[in-house]
What we know:
Blueprint: E1 8-13, H1 18-21, H2 24-32, E2 36-41, H3 50-53, E3 59-60, E4 65-66, H4 73-91, E5 98-99, H5 112-126, E6 131-135, H6 145-160, E7 165-170, H7 172-175, E8 187-190, H8 193-207, E9 209-210, E10 215-216, H9 218-222, H10 224-233, E11 235-240
Helix pairs in contact: 2-8, 4-8, 5-6
Amino acid sequence: xxxxxxxxVLYFAPHQDDELLSMGIDIASSVKNGYDVHVIVVTDGxxxxxxxxxxxxxxxxxxxxxxxYDLTKEDFTATRDQELFGCCDALGVKRENVHFPDERIVxxxxxxxxxxEIIKDFVARIDPECTVCTIHPNKPEAHHRDHRTLxxxxxxxxxxxxxxxxxxxxxxxxAVEVDHDPGEEPTVYYAPDDIAKQIxxxxxxxxxxxxxxxxxxxxFHSVPREMNQLITEKGLYYHTYE
Length: 242
């Protein structure tokens, strides 16, 4: 269990599914241990190539059907948000504690200044003494630019004193592959059985394929290997800044 110095914990994710892949174990643990947990997703998640794949008229081996689903970017964001809500339900997060910025960033376009604005706004609005958790700003070649930029924004705000307490978390699929500099290795926490079961339930929201109800298993189509890795390895890779 990763203890926090404040009662309120804000988890900032760049896209729908990052809250689960990088932070889900800690989110469930924090809820279980009585913290006031909030999840904030900062982009619309609409730039994933899965949107076009869902309408490419090709047979999909993953969902055993032909892809004939022409989704607008707005439709795609909406279905990804439903996956997010289902995931957060499984992790124990209250629906009213799942947030988006008033103006969500276009997926792939997070800037340092805009990310800092969003983090500052939610910290001031919810609890200035909160603990902020987000993606670790690893080496540029290690992962998605949005992930790194959000992490860099949180680190800068911590150095400026706006964020009082900070934890950054590495994507498991990055943590086990990146060549960390000496002293920069993450601490690893493995989920106990009860939390692991919650993670399995949360993954189901991203694997749900039910087009009649506008569910298209975006997470499953996007990162199936990473989702399955989370279930089997059950590892949380984190850095503290106290």
